[in-house]
Amino acid sequence: FFVYIIAVTFAMFRIITALFLRDTLALAANDAELVVEEKMKQKQSYSEKLLDFFHRADTNQDGMLSFAEFDLIMRDDKVKTWLSVMEVDIHEPREFFETLAG
What we know:
Strand content: under 5%
Oligomer: single chain
Order of helices and strands: HHHH
Distance between the termini: 81 Å
Largest sheet: none
Structural class: mainly alpha
Helix content: over 70%
Shape: rod-shaped
Mean pLDDT: 84
């Protein structure tokens, strides 16, 4: 009878441990999904901000950004700081512009 009680107690502990583990893994999976969703939102926000930047840089509103327009806006320290916050560091505006232009 003593062996039976030990076996049942052991089995109950194993079941409880498995339930905790299952719940923990489910929460971890949800956390991973939330991280991916948050990264996607950040990417979308980043894209929208850069697009807004290029629209504002297009001073003659022709839908094309010339190097003169780009160079003019890159002389503004606020723009340089804003781009730096966005993790876009531009040391050579001409080289950066040509890279973007293809």
